[in-house]
Amino acid sequence: MNRKEMASVIEGILFAMGDSVEISKIAKALEADQGVVESICDELAEKYKKEKRGVRIVKLDSSYQMCTSVDVYEYLIKLAKQPKKYALTDVLMETLSIIAYKQPITKAEIEKIRGVSSDHAVSKLVEFGLAQELGRLDAPGRPMLFGTTEDFLRSFGIASITDLPSLNPMQVEEFKMQAEAEAENVLAENIEI
Q1: Distance CA 23, CA 37 (A)
Q2: What is the pLDDT at residue 63?
Q3: CATH classification of 3-72 is 1.10.10.10, yes or no?
Q4: Domains 3-72 and 90-167 are alike in CATH topology
């Protein structure tokens, strides 16, 4: 591998890792001499600095890290101050609906209703500020309880959870039958495999 190829790989490694990466680890990954790797990292750092790029490569003890250039901080601050927008996928909406109507609810109860793991969906809803941890259930394992937030109420234009539309019992039965049919289909497909 020539220096140009090594520089490309090092750049990719530093970008992907995010944190600082020790020269010895980069050298081991490249199966190259540490001195050569350090020299290439220094050249990349100087190149980024000279070209006034938005990212820089900095040396931290015996490691290198790719980070944002100080020249763009003011723009990052402007961006960070903008209101956050998030996309609610069908999975997130389904999980949020379950939390809203059944709160306080545990992840296990959500998964029982959905029929699939809900770790990611619940984590995203907490990250978006639409769901929150309400405490722990007084049961074995002390599972976390989840509920909605004030941001949820604001986002959906309701003053209270009691303002959620009530579910038509006929629709609930129809949803149950659809869910059972889907579960049977999935089971049949798994048996055929």
Answers
A1: 7
A2: 92
A3: yes
A4: yes
